Amino acid sequence: MSAGNWSRLENGLQGPPADEVIQAIAAVFEVDAGELFALAGRQPSDFETRVLRELAEIRAGIARLERAMNS
Question: Per-domain residue ranges for the chain?
Fold first, then answer.
């Protein structure tokens, strides 16, 4: 997402981004994607919610492993 698009989104000048972008934003900021979907006026399916939760757990596990390896 470009800086210009991000600015327009923050200022309410642009509608919510695509689902994939919402998921990527959630991953970058380590927030619950479901909350961002709700703010965008969309709700992922139960399947999507489970997959996103599992992916978040995998990312967290990888981050823990990386920290342990670098300690």
Answer: 18-70
